């Protein structure tokens, strides 16, 4: 059989807890579920290979949000994230993360993942955020995946690589019953019955098109095509604040972080074309991105990361992290371009849009136990709604999800699903393979993502969004009637394209619903330019009701950590004021 030839096959397996996505949150969720009940079966399903998948596949250069005793308190952190997220936060989940994450750091340390320590052996935390100190460098961060994988093998987690989940199965009472997946090399379908399911499929990172034009040159891991968001939506789960887009300040054409988090503590800063600072703080927030955007609009761009004023030894130290861990291609890119940080600043730009709670707040709605609104269904990491979560949030909330999901599985039997649902999904999945001729998935994907850039990239204009919706509906028609897949690989791309179009529709719908501006550039609506706390100090929840996309408001839960009036808008004051 030739590789990627399509095989017609269907099999069914069952397990107690099914974890989908083996990037960051997923391995931790699987591990904690298994530790909770070692006799139970835990399956970790991954589209790629758990050894090298997800946002941390090549390692990571630091923890962005470590709450370490002596440096920060859970109360302080909860306050910071609440303010950074314009107040729209259910603090319980953030507070729980802040209380638990130190234990997880110690656990990761015991797995062999080393964190920066000072001469006393204490963690050496750096200040990047506006108020508190939370960034913990990881000088040997490239080992993170290997260390995790060892733990999974030791715990006897059943790992299914190269299976792409496509839809969740639910019972007539709405409970989750399992998932349907497709082998990415053979197209064989695997149905997995499960008592509880944890979604850890990362951000929706292939939504906008990078300005470089490379379809896979996204900021996010390009395999994160928003399948998790689409699956949660089709299963009836609520998704929160999808209009709070992820937009990042990145290296122009390379599209990776310029990395003020690494270089900032050494004295590097974000500068305009005049070499002047214009933002107080390099921490990624919507307000910071708005100042970045304003600087470009004002004609003072391009914007740069400036390090050339630093001592050569310091630059060398920065390079040893930035060119080795997280995105090892960065050094090659700069070399190819002939950029030497000693003499030249690094040109930055504004990224394509995506959904990601890890960096902003758009995700499947979860409570402080990582429970979604569908019984038995959990979500953790970049695709769950806990804001500004990052890698340590994925680990910590993955752990919370794993433990709670196993408790759920211990107390429930398998839910029944309708066999007709499997047949229907099989037809949907295989449809592009049944056509003789048509449009290949990469063309449909390119068209949809170009429309995302043309119409949905902020500033958000109502008229543009409405036109965007119409154009996307036309793409959907082409996709549903004319898309072809000639081998299993193309079928994977065809399925991803369907997730991308679903996410584009959700991005447009959610953005039109919130009639105000909030979160800086993330949700800047020109027709409603002001923040409107009276009407919109709330979450928005998007879900599928009777087959239709709907949005509703949801109250922000009472704060656990109070925020004083004069602290509420600290993140709005990002711009450096001219001093006489
Ligand atoms: C370039 C970059 C730099 C970053 N730098 C930092 C940093 O320095 N510090 C920090 O704290 N955080 C950083 N982050 C954020 C952090 O990496 C993420 O928040 C975290 O890794 C997210 O974990 P996750 O488990 O949600 O997603 P991921 O780790 O991305 O895992 C998602 C997994 O799901 C799989 N998957 C997707 N769809 C399917 C499907 N249909 N079926 C099966 N599997 C599927 C994917 O293949 C992937 O393995 C960075 C992120 C990026 C992209």
Description:
With 580 residues, this protein is an alpha+beta fold. The chain is 34% helix and 15% strand. The chain has helices at residues 25-36, 74-84, 91-110, 144-154, 227-234, 260-263, 286-297, 312-322, 329-337, 390-411, 419-430, 441-456, 462-482, 488-513, 533-536, and strands at 10-20, 42-45, 62-63, 136-137, 158-160, 163-170, 176-183, 189-199, 239-240, 249-251, 269-271, 303-306, 346-350, 363-364, 377-379, 538-545, 548-555. The strands form 4 sheets. Strands 1, 2, 5, 6, 7, 8 and 15 form a 7-stranded mixed β-sheet that branches. A 4-stranded antiparallel β-sheet has the order 14-9-16-17. A hairpin with a 5-residue loop joins strand 7 (176-183) and strand 8. Flavin-adenine dinucleotide binds next to helix 1, strand 3, strand 6 and helix 10.
Short description:
This protein is α+β, with helices and mostly antiparallel strands and 580 residues long. The protein contains 15 helices and 17 strands.
List keywords for this structure.
globular; alpha+beta; 580 residues; four-stranded antiparallel β-sheet; 15 helices
Summarize the SSE layout with pairings.
Blueprint: E1 10-20, H1 25-36, E2 42-45, E3 62-63, H2 74-84, H3 91-110, E4 136-137, H4 144-154, E5 158-160, E6 163-170, E7 176-183, E8 189-199, H5 227-234, E9 239-240, E10 249-251, H6 260-263, E11 269-271, H7 286-297, E12 303-306, H8 312-322, H9 329-337, E13 346-350, E14 363-364, E15 377-379, H10 390-411, H11 419-430, H12 441-456, H13 462-482, H14 488-513, H15 533-536, E16 538-545, E17 548-555
Parallel strand pairs: 1-2, 1-8, 2-5, 8-15
Antiparallel strand pairs: 3-4, 6-7, 7-8, 9-14, 9-16, 10-13, 11-12, 12-13, 16-17
The structure holds flavin-adenine dinucleotide.
């Amino acid at each position: 059989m030739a590789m990627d030839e399509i095989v017609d096959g269907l099999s069914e397996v069952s397990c107690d807890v099914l974890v989908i996505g083996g990037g960051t949150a997923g391995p931790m969720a699987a591990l904690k579920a298994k530790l909770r009940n070692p006799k139970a079966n835990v399956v970790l399903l991954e589209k790629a290979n758990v050894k090298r998948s997800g946002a941390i596949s090549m390692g990571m250069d630091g923890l962005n949000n470590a709450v370490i005793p002596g440096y920060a308190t859970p109360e302080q952190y909860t306050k910071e994230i609440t303010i950074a997220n314009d107040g729209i936060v259910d603090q319980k989940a953030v507070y729980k993360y802040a209380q638990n994450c130190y234990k997880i750091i110690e656990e990761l340390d015991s797995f062999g993942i080393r964190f920066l320590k000072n001469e006393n052996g204490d963690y050496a935390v750096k200040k990047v955020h506006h108020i508190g100190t939370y960034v913990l460098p990881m000088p040997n961060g490239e080992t993170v995946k290997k260390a995790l994988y060892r733990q999974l093998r030791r715990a006897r987690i059943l790992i299914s690589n190269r299976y792409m989940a496509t839809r969740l199965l639910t019972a007539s009472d709405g409970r989750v019953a399992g998932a349907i997946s497709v082998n990415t090399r053979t197209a064989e379908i695997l149905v997995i019955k499960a008592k509880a399911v944890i979604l850890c499929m990362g951000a929706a990172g292939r939504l906008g098109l990078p300005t470089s034009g490379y379809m896979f040159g996204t900021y996010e891991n390009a395999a994160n095509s928003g399948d998790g968001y689409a699956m949660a939506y089709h299963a009836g789960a609520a998704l929160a604040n999808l209009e709070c887009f992820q937009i990042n300040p990145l290296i122009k054409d390379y599209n990776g972080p310029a990395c003020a988090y690494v270089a900032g503590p050494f004295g590097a800063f974000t500068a305009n074309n005049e070499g002047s600072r214009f933002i107080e703080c390099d921490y990624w927030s919507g307000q910071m991105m708005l100042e970045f955007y304003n600087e470009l609009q004002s004609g003072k761009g391009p914007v740069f990361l400036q390090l050339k004023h630093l001592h050569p030894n310091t630059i060398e130290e920065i390079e040893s992290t930035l060119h080795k861990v997280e995105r090892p291609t960065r050094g090659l890119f700069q070399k190819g371009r002939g950029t030497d940080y000693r003499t030249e600043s690094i040109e930055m730009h504004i990224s394509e849009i995506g959904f990601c709670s890890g960096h902003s707040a758009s995700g499947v709605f979860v409570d402080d136990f990582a429970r979604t609104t569908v019984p038995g269904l959990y979500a953790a990491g970049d695709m769950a709604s806990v804001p500004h979560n990052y890698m340590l949030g994925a680990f910590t909330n993955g752990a919370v999800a794993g433990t709670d999901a196993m408790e759920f599985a211990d107390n429930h039997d398998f839910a029944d699903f309708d066999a007709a649902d499997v047949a229907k999904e099989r037809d949907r999945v295989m449809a592009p393979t049944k056509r003789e001729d048509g449009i290949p998935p990469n063309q449909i994907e390119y068209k949809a993502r170009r429309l995302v850039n043309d119409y949905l990239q902020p500033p958000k204009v109502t008229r543009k969004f409405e036109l965007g919706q119409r154009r996307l509906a036309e793409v959907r028609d082409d996709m549903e009637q004319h898309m072809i897949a000639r081998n299993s690989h193309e079928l994977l791309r065809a399925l991803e394209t369907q997730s991308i179009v679903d996410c584009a529709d959700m991005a447009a719908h959610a953005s039109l619903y919130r009639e105000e501006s909030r979160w800086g550039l993330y949700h800047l609506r020109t027709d409603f330019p002001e923040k409107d706390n009276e009407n919109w100090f709330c979450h928005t929840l998007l879900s599928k009701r009777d087959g239709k996309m709907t949005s509703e408001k949801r109250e922000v839960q009472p704060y656990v950590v109070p925020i004083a009036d004069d602290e509420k808008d600290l993140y709005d004051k990002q711009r450096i004021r001219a001093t006489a």
